[in-house]
Design a protein that fits this description.
alpha/beta; TIM Barrel; seven-stranded parallel β-sheet; two-stranded antiparallel sheet; Uroporphyrinogen_deCOase; decarboxylase; cytoplasm; lyase; EC 4.1.1.37
Length: 343
C-alpha cells in the first residue's frame, strides 16, 4: 500500500482524540459522478454489485476523487434479500420494487436463511479486494429490520408506510416473526462483511422515523438490541442511521451502538443537551450542496463547531448525496472540513 493507513474515522467512532474531524458521505458513490454514470451505461446496479472488480472500483472512486476518510461498500440494502426469496428489482427513478410482498406467516416462513458464502460471495470478495486497495477504513452496511420490512410489505417505496404499520398493529406475532427473521439476516450479513475485512458497519434504518417513540420501543427496539449486542462481539464500531428520527434518539441511546448518525432536523447541540454522549455522525442538509459555497461553508462551520465540543464527531450529510450534486463542490467541502478542524 503506497500511502500510510488513515484511521482517523475509526478513532472518532471510538471517541478517541483525532487530528481533525473525519468526513465521508452517504451515497458517496453514485449518479452525481460522471465516471459512475459511464459504468452504469454498461452494467445494471446488481451487475456492478455482483462483479467484485467493478464494485471495488465504484466504491474506491469517491475516496480518490474527494479525499474522504472512509469508504462505504457499494451495494444496496436489497442485496441480501434476493437470495432469501424476495423477488426485487431496482427500477430507475423508483427504487426497489418487489413482486412478491409478504402478508402472512407462511410468506415469512418461506423466506430462506442467508448463507453469505453461498448467497453473496461477490460481496465478501469485494470487501477482501477493497481491503487490499484502500488506505482508509471500509464501512460495511445493511438495512435495518423496519426499513427492510417496509419494502417487503409495501412492495416498494412508500410515503406513509400505512400498510407496514397496519401489519405491525394488526398482526403483532407475525410482525415479530418478520423482525426476528430480518434481525438474524442483518447479524449474519454484517458479521460476514466484518470477517471479510469491513472495519466498521452502518445499519440503515432510513424510514423508521415514520414511527412514534412508543411504537419504536415496543415493535422495533428488541430487534435492534439483538443486532447491536451481537455485533458488539466483533469489536468493530457500529453506526445507526435513520432519517427524520430526532424524536427516537433517546431510545437509540439505550442501544449498545457506538455512533448515532443524525439528520439535519436535529442539531448536534440539541442531541448533546439530551444527555447523549455516544459518537455522532452528520448532519448537513444535502440540499445545501446546491447553495452558494459561502452559505454551505457557514452551515458546515456551525456543525463542526458543535461537533468539536466533545470527541466522537464524524462529518457527514443528514442523508445521501443526490444526482444533482457536483464532485467539485464535495471535494471543496471535504477539504474545508479537514482544514477548518485541523489542530
Amino acid at each position: 500500500m503506497a500511502n500510510r493507513f488513515n484511521d482517523v474515522f475509526l478513532k472518532a467512532c471510538r471517541g478517541e482524540d483525532v487530528p481533525y474531524t473525519p468526513v465521508w458521505y452517504m451515497r458517496q458513490a453514485g449518479r452525481y459522478q460522471p465516471e459512475y454514470r459511464k459504468i452504469r451505461e454498461k452494467y445494471s446496479f446488481f451487475d456492478i454489485n455482483e462483479n467484485p472488480e467493478v464494485c471495488a472500483e465504484v466504491t474506491k472512486l469517491p475516496v480518490d476523487q474527494l479525499g474522504v476518510d472512509a469508504a462505504i461498500l457499494f451495494a444496496d440494502i436489497m442485496t441480501p434479500l434476493k437470495p432469501i426469496g424476495v423477488d426485487v428489482e431496482i427500477v430507475e427513478g423508483v427504487g426497489p420494487v418487489i413482486s412478491n410482498p409478504v402478508s402472512t406467516i407462511e410468506d415469512i416462513q418461506n423466506l430462506r436463511s442467508l448463507d453469505p458464502n453461498r448467497d453473496v460471495p461477490f460481496i465478501l470478495d469485494t470487501v477482501k479486494l477493497l481491503r487490499e486497495q484502500l488506505n482508509v477504513p471500509l464501512i460495511g452496511f445493511s438495512g435495518a429490520p423496519f426499513t427492510l420490512a417496509s419494502y417487503i410489505i409495501e412492495g416498494g417505496p412508500s410515503k406513509g408506510y400505512h400498510k407496514t404499520k397496519g401489519f405491525m398493529y394488526a398482526k403483532p406475532s407475525v410482525w415479530q416473526a418478520l423482525m426476528d427473521k430480518l434481525a438474524e439476516l442483518t447479524i449474519v450479513y454484517l458479521k460476514a462483511q466484518i470477517k471479510a475485512g469491513a472495519q466498521a458497519v452502518q445499519v440503515f434504518d432510513s424510514w423508521v422515523g415514520a414511527l412514534e417513540e412508543q411504537d419504536y420501543r415496543i415493535y422495533i427496539a428488541p430487534a435492534m438490541e439483538k443486532i447491536f449486542t451481537a455485533l458488539k462481539e466483533t469489536g468493530v464500531p457500529t453506526i445507526y442511521f435513520g432519517s427524520g428520527s430526532g424524536h427516537l434518539l433517546k431510545e437509540w441511546n439505550k442501544l449498545p451502538v457506538d455512533v448515532l448518525s443524525i439528520d439535519w432536523r436535529t442539531s448536534i447541540k440539541d442531541v448533546r443537551a439530551m444527555g447523549i454522549q455516544k459518537g455522532l455522525q452528520g448532519n448537513l442538509d444535502p440540499s445545501l450542496l446546491l447553495a452558494p459555497f459561502d452559505m454551505l461553508r457557514d452551515r458546515t462551520k456551525t456543525i463542526l463547531d458543535q461537533g468539536k465540543e466533545t470527541t466522537g464527531h464524524i462529518f457527514n450529510l443528514g442523508h445521501g448525496i443526490f444526482p444533482a450534486a457536483s464532485v467539485a463542490t464535495l471535494k471543496k467541502l471535504t477539504d474545508f472540513v479537514h482544514d477548518y478542524t485541523s489542530k
